[in-house]
Design a protein that fits this description.
Strand 8 and strand 9 form a beta hairpin. Helix 5 runs antiparallel to helix 6, helix 5 packs parallel to helix 7 and helix 6 runs antiparallel to helix 7. It is globular, with a radius of gyration of 27 Å. It has 3 domains: about 140 residues, Alpha Horseshoe (Serine Threonine Protein Phosphatase 5, Tetratricopeptide repeat), CATH 1.25.40; about 70 residues, Carboxypeptidase-like, regulatory domain (Immunoglobulin-like, Sandwich), CATH 2.60.40; about 40 residues, no CATH class. The protein is built from 9 helices and 9 strands. It has about 280 residues and is α+β, with helices and mostly antiparallel strands. The longest helix has 26 residues. The strands form 3 sheets. A 4-stranded antiparallel sheet has the order 3-2-5-6, with no helix packed on it. Strands 4-1-7 form a 3-stranded mixed sheet. About 45% of the residues lie in helices and about 20% in strands.
Length: about 280
């Protein structure tokens, strides 16, 4: 890396020692696969692996030349095909060299959540994160009321799994908006400073149709016309409607949305791809 010329060489050298063992482990895993696995699925996996390898090796070549923007793009293409910790780490390292600290922190956060990340790579990730954290802030966004709304941070739609999580963010002013059916229903402004944690809460009123259902989640009540003769049938209808209105006014429907992404495991080692 720029300013750290030995980093990538040491990273590759350490991984080269484990090349044979990793290759053997990958071969054993292939042989142990279910005999009923389809040939087409295997072919697709092989194609993705081949493509990831090509992009990853191109990223390493570009990184050696100090072409960090091109290297980051190559690592990102590899990550799209095979989301493994080794690729994610190198993408984060390239982003750090470009001064894109928030994006780098996002990749390092994902690396830490990946259960397939080795202890050695976690340690290197911590070291890289120590360079990133002094350059960014964190913001935690919470939603109360109707949690089914879509939340946008500046120009990026947040995944439900990101709500309530301390997200890395560049210092400065940021817009947090909640929308429902394309309509803005809540808005807050957040000012984030370096190394500081900011909290934003969006209070969203429940949707009108949810209230109309009385918070029960069922279909709306069927409309009934009163008797034309103004007899007792009409009186009973309007008395019942008045009671229902009181119940409806006190009802609130809260829909909880959560997301959890499973880590994707691969046969990549930190800083290098292992291929059979």
């Amino acid at each position: 890396m720029q300013g750290h010329p030995s980093c990538y060489r040491l990273f590759r050298a350490a991984c080269a020692l484990s090349l044979l063992a990793a290759s053997l482990a990958a071969s054993a895993g292939v042989k142990a696969q279910d005999a009923g696995a389809s040939a087409s699925q295997q072919s697709t996996d092989d194609s993705r692996t081949t493509g990831a390898r090509a992009h990853f090796q191109e990223g390493l070549r570009l990184a050696d030349q100090g072409k960090w923007a091109e290297a980051a793009e190559a690592f990102r293409l590899a990550l799209d095909l095979r989301a493994t910790p080794g690729i994610r780490y190198n993408l984060a390292a390239a982003l750090v060299e470009l001064g894109r600290h928030r994006e780098a922190a996002e990749q390092l956060d994902a690396l830490e959540r990946d259960i397939s990340t080795t202890a050695e790579l976690r340690q290197q990730s911590d070291e890289l994160k120590a360079r990133v954290e002094p350059q960014i802030g964190r913001v935690t966004i919470r939603v109360t009321g109707d949690t089914s709304v879509r939340v946008r941070l500046d120009n990026r739609d947040l995944d439900p799994s990101e709500i309530g999580v301390a997200l890395p963010i560049e210092p400065g002013d940021h817009a947090v908006v909640a929308t429902r059916d394309g309509e803005v229903v809540a808005r807050q402004q957040a000012t984030v400073r370096v190394r500081e944690q900011s909290d934003v809460q969006l209070d969203v009123a429940p949707a009108a149709e949810a209230v109309a259902r009385g918070g029960e989640g069922g279909p709306p009540a069927e409309h009934v016309e009163p008797d034309d003769d103004g007899g007792s049938g009409g009186w009973i209808f309007w008395a019942a409607a008045g009671a229902a209105a009181v119940a409806i006014a006190a009802a609130v429907l809260i829909i909880s949305v959560s997301g959890e992404e499973d880590p994707v495991e691969g046969n990549f080692q930190p800083g290098v791809l292992v291929w059979e």
